[in-house]
Amino acid sequence: MQIRSSRKRINRQIFAKRVRLIDHDEKQRGIVDKEIALAEARENDLDLVEIAPEADPPVCKIMDYGKYQFEQNKKTKEGKKRQKAVQLKEIKLGLQIADHDLLFKVKKAQDFLTDGHKLKIVLFFKGREIAHADLGRGLMMKLIDYLKEFSVVETRPSLEGKRMVMILVPVQRKPS
Fold this sequence. Notes:
Blueprint: E1 18-22, E2 28-33, H1 34-43, E3 47-52, E4 59-63, H2 65-82, E5 88-94, H3 99-114, E6 118-124, H4 133-146, E7 151-160, E8 163-170
Parallel strand pairs: 1-4, 5-6
Antiparallel strand pairs: 1-2, 3-4, 6-8, 7-8
């Protein structure tokens, strides 16, 4: 297995004898000898950069490599700024939860969803409560009803052993 470096080969680091050349004006010049391409790059005080090493012959471009690297770094930083980490938050509850406690959990769920996080709701069955899975499903449907303006159901309530699990995702709000 060959490990590829993220650094591009420039000038004398290019191994091929002949290259497909793109000049500094973005014009395709066709296949030329590497030495001719290097001479033209030096003549314009630029670098010969291998941009597609897997092509046959490799594609090389005459450009200012320092400026190219700077712009690439700038683009990656901009991309990282725009990314938002979406976390999976979890809320646990039991079948015998009181109404006030349930409303408290709903409020917390609303906070998570408005922050843009996915939400996993886990309902635990203790002892023989598992025989009343229909009551658990009813409680989950009640939660879906409370959270309908904040979320969309990604995974419907499903029984996994002695737990019932469902996943909600936040509603995409249109910018106003």
